[in-house]
What we know:
The protein has 18 helices and 7 strands. The protein is mostly helical and 390 residues long. Among the domains are: 3-66 and 131-182, Helicase, Ruva Protein, domain 3 (Orthogonal Bundle), CATH 1.10.8; 233-318, no CATH class; 335-389, no CATH class.
Amino acid sequence: MRRFLIAAALIAAPLTALADVPCGGSFSKFVQGLRTEAIAAGIAPNTAKAFFAGVKQDPAVLRADRKQGVFQIPFVDFSRRLISNDRINRGRANGKKYDAIFDRIEKTYGVDRGVLLAFWAFETDYGSFQGDFNTANALVTLAHDCRRPDLFRPQVLAAVELFAQGGFDPKSTTGAWAGEIGMVQMLPRDILENGVDGDGDGQVSLKTSAPDALMSGGKMLHHLGWRAGEPWLDEVSVPQDFDWSLTGLDVQKSTAEWRALGVTARNGDLANGLTASLLLPQGRGGPAFIAYPNFRVYFDWNQSFTYVMTAAYFATRLQGAKVFDAGNPEPGLEGGQMKQLQTKLQSRGYDVGDIDGILGAKTRTAVRREQARLGLAVDGWPTPALLGKL
């Protein structure tokens, strides 16, 4: 579930905005156009011909792209589903097993081991299942599909470059339905830019070498802006009389300011000298977290707020944090109700993205504005009461 896998449901752009990116039409002619573009970019004609020779459209990829209901599940339930004692124990065991590699990652890229262990767990269950979709077919299918051709066409060309370098076989390379490859699920362009030979065998083997995959993931996070030596998330307690309009990623304050407002860490203390946002994934009655600048880097890995919250929280657990206090959040909306809410918000002029039943960033922003208009607690958590008032 690397970053672009979720982007399908959350940041799909209208076709008119992508008119300059070829897509659709005859699949064979589309592939011919890709081959021509690859050659124009410097790929040898015979190499381009060999790459695209057996490429096929994969309907299963399109079905997977349009089916992402798991992200309709609220944070508490989603995190409990993904984080088990077994995953925690295996994560800590892998941390010890690859201790020297994680030391290198922390020294070279400044990325904490818990962060990469959490991604490794969620993406492929520590490498045990890396996806069985033919990667070339998946990428070309998604590039041909007119939902996000600007996203996937460059990944096809990057895969051709990997093939030219000897690091990709279009017939046998497999991975996730959205084209990610290896233990931490990286797209071809990310591999070209951030692939690292972590085990010293002269090759970058993200499917079979944990050192290669982990080092590459660390380099990619560093490239995306990860700040060495800084935390990413802390669970906090918040006063009951708090001004809930101060919550959300749009509001940033110094940790000193948050302390002055009565926000306290449940484990240890808030980091000094950093700005942060106060996040309530299930409203004022549920768990609360302070998110530091590194937290925002997660959204370059994955666009789903629920996934990002869960991955960031799991990383803290792997490094010794306690189980979060689930609190007593108000009941939220089921998938159908969430779609009703998004439809109502859209009719009021809000941009909520796709009507997909997923509480994404745009929907949360619209919810907060309507909560303020209606005199409700502005915590970004949509409830049946809010839906009724709309």
